[in-house]
Amino acid sequence: xxxxxxxxxxxxxxxxxxxxxxxxxxxxxxxxxxxxxxxxxxxxxxxxxxxxxxxxxxxxxxxxxxxxxxxxxxxxxxxxxxxxxxxxxxxxxxxxxxxxxxxxxxxxxxxxxxxxxxxxxxxxxxxxxxxxxxxxxxxxxxxxxxxxxxxxxxxxxxxxxxxxxxxxxxxxxxxxxxxxxxxxxxxxxxxxxxxxxxxxxxxxxxxxxxxxxxxxxxxxxxxxxxxxxxxxxxxxxxxxxxxxxxxxxxxxxxxxxxxxxxxxxxxxxxxxxxxxxxxxxxxxxxxxxxxxxxxxxxxxxxxxxxxxxxxxxxxxxxxxxxxxxxxxxxxxxxxxxxxxxxxxxxxxxxxxxxxxxxxxxxxxxxxxxxxxxxxxxxxxxxxxxxxxxxxxxxxxxxxxxxxxxxxxxxxxxxxxxxxxxxxxxxxxxxxxxxxxxxxxxxxxxxxxxxxxxxxxxxxxxxxxxxxxxxxxxxxxxxxxxxxxxxxxxxxxxxxxxxxxxxxxxxxxxxxxxxxxxxxxxxxxxxxxxxxxxxxxxxxxxxxxxxxxxxxxxxxxxxxxxxxxxxxxxxxxxxx
Length: 575
Known about the structure:
By secondary structure, the chain is mostly helical. 64% of the residues lie in helices and 3% in strands. It is built from 32 helices and five strands. The protein has a three-stranded antiparallel beta sheet. A two-stranded antiparallel sheet has the order 4-5. Helix 4 packs antiparallel against helix 5 and helix 9 packs parallel to helix 11 (203-214). It is elongated and about 140 Å long. The relative contact order is 0.03.
């Protein structure tokens, strides 16, 4: 082998140097070989100057005949292939294609990719195709069909040329889409979106293929219908695209193009009578569209569509969801005289116990999910536990119910007594009555005594009763309500204990004066100590504030005195 390497080196040098160098090397080699008893011959003859093919030498020894030849690029590639370095052999061959005599690059690539496929390395084989195949359309046609037969065309599709400057014929992409349409509909939708933006296939041809599929007995799957909608968008047929989206309903994977289509092309007339279908598509997008486009999608018309579905179980939430959206985002337009009926309808929906927990209505199947308003429990603003309120330890003011929050905002609740009376009747007709909402309505209707009675007898929360009295603006009425509260508390020791603990210092001191002698109060000592402590803190705070004000006043007086002692320069006209 060492002799072969030496021959290879000198043959390369001699052949590159020309015919004379080769003859000199021939003489030297012959002399050296004859000294060893060997005979060197060349066949058929030495190479002529400029000949592209180097000569072959035969070294004849007593035991064997050695063929000596120049090692070419084909030999290098064969050696790499024998060592399993197929990818490296391809790189070497592509780097020096003119040095190849027997090897074909296409065969190297084919054998390499086939080897990867045999190993089921489809992802790696697909990624290699983009670099190895380049923009050769015939090679791509072959390998697309090969991956298609193997059932892994989706791996290759991600690496197919997809830029306007480097792409295949439209028929190739149409073939792939047709394959995905029948075998992998989600992939069909994905590549319709990607390749459609680049204009790589014929849109009319694909629409015709889908139409043929729709003519069969088996209807197309939702991703195929959505892909058809995107094809209509590419074909500038917005109305047909919107019909496909509405046909799918909540099966649409991405609702953004639907609502962009409506706004961009002004297709409000197509969805004016299909509001429930819009809500099925996407509650969040539908809310924004319905609130922002009240000029095209009238409030009364939308509400009438949703109201017609109230008889269907669970669909009450859709109407409440829409009215709640207007209440939150369309305040100026919705809070108007013409919508009094809708305001009352919203109150009735709030009062319905079925809407207290919208998550229990199966709205996950309707596509509304978390977008629908979460209405609090029917206990509303003044909800509390009776076991705690009996001891005067209620939960305090709880977050308002949706109905009370709505009534605070509604123009009709503030300016229409008949509206408040209707609301009161709705709350009273429920079983059990909505006491908390009734208290609010009575307070709004200037019936504070009745409201306080309900708080004490039905709601039974002393803290909120005190809060109700303290918030009364009319001082005379406040004094009257306080008398009612004290009178009721004296008749109920548990309430008296609670009022001593929860009332402010001023009211607590007034209450102590009104408690009759020898009246037993549970835990009175602890409550009195708390009142005394609060009183001491209040007195300490007053003394501190007084000292601070007096110190500030002293400083300001001294400053004024020093200022007045200074002379002021004036001119004669000012005298």
